[in-house]
């Protein structure tokens, strides 16, 4: 019996050619630039969210009580009186509802706090340094800070409360403003990218108008033509997104390295989590989805007006 020949499969060609189309390179460059800007800006937004979360967890959930030092010629007597006021403040704070933990900052930590201003060789034992008490609040604790300050002053006249809210609220407002500006940039980048895909698709349809008309004569529906353009734009979106992300990642790490040089600053609270990195790394898929959907609906809408 003669051997049965295996069927030969040939790759299916696209009816609407993409090679030689001057709009292809332009669109890929636009998408690459858009993903680059989007990735860098998005990393900033996610970092600000992380920073605000860390502030709310570590700073807003705490108080600082300061015990002003007693001024006296006799240093030992002055130190003993200051420590006595400190103990009275601690005893009072432990009775306040909503306070979870009361911790006295040791001299070694106070030494580190003043080093940026006074230098390394300063001995705090020779200075009239205030005593610092760190207070951790219970979650969702409701405390009347004005009343707390008055009661603490009665229990320990040398003590004063700093709840951080006055300066931190202004800082949070500033961070929220930066985040709102960054979100505006993301919306504009998305809109500009969609507009570029829209006009590029229309331009390509104008160049291949004859081919589209032939396809309609052969019985092709608008959905079929739209799918051809959607597949084509999906390739452009994915390739352009990968290129944009390739250049964005070193930029993000460079900016992060500059932020880490601010030792002990509030910027150190801005960190990207694993989920944040997964969102950034998925931006080529976002670009693919934007390019595909925009091209599909552009073709459908244009053909409905033409025919």
């Amino acid at each position: 019996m003669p051997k049965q020949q295996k069927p030969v499969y040939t790759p299916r060609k696209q009816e609407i050619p993409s090679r030689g189309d001057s709009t292809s390179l332009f669109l890929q460059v636009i998408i690459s630039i858009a993903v680059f800007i989007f990735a860098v800006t998005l990393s900033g937004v996610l970092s600000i969210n992380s920073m605000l979360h860390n502030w709310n967890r570590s700073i807003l959930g705490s108080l600082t009580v300061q015990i002003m030092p007693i001024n006296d010629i006799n240093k030992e007597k002055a130190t003993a009186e200051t420590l006595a006021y400190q103990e009275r403040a601690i005893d009072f704070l432990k009775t306040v509802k909503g306070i979870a933990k009361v911790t006295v900052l040791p001299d070694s930590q106070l030494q580190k706090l003043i080093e940026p201003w006074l230098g390394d060789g300063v001995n705090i034992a020779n200075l009239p340094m205030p005593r610092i008490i760190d207070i951790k609040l219970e979650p969702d604790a409701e405390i009347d800070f004005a009343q707390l300050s008055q009661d603490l002053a009665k229990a320990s006249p040398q003590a004063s409360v700093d709840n951080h809210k006055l300066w931190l609220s202004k800082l949070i407002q500033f961070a929220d403003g930066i985040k709102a500006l960054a979100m505006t940039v993301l919306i504009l980048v998305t809109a500009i990218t969609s507009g570029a895909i829209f006009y590029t698709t229309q331009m390509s349809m104008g160049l291949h108008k004859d081919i589209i008309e032939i396809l309609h004569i052969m019985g092709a529906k608008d959905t079929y033509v739209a799918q051809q353009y959607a597949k084509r734009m999906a390739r452009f979106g994915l390739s352009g997104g990968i290129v944009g992300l390739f250049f964005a990642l070193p930029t993000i790490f460079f900016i992060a390295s500059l932020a880490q040089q601010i030792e002990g600053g509030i910027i150190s609270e801005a960190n990207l989590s694993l989920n944040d990195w997964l969102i950034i790394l998925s931006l080529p898929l976002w670009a693919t989805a934007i390019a595909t959907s925009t091209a599909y609906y552009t073709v459908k809408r244009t053909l409905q007006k033409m025919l």
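Confidence is low (pLDDT under 50) at residues 7-12. The chain has nine helices and four strands.
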